[in-house]
Design goal:
2,3-Dihydroxybiphenyl 1,2-Dioxygenase, domain 1; four-stranded mixed sheet; alpha/beta
Amino acid sequence: MIGYVTLGTVDLAKSGAFYDALLGTLGAKRFMEEPNYFIAWATAENEPSLGVTLPFNKEPATVGNGNMVAIALETPEQVQAFYNKALALGGTCEGKPGFRPEGATSGFYGGYFRDLDGNKLNGFCMVQETEQ
């Protein structure tokens, strides 16, 4: 259902480098780019994408309270690696990888972080009881 998500940035080059490295771990590449305005990544042109942009209205980019982009992954190990990569690139922790709710042993497994502009993201997967 989701076609793409766009996040605001105050530094397109810096944000571009962050997402090149982070989304590159998932096989995503830049597939759309408008210099000094917008960059988008996807694993294929017809798949959902993530983009960063300098705001069209020329006002400073700000983060939305309660907004978050969730990246679907396959395993808890991928969630951990994605989260670790985000932090290594300068992202900040918003919730270490683990099951939600805390104490669960199956179901939703996610790790939360903020990018260089403060946008909140997470990597997540669904874990069945038998997968552990």
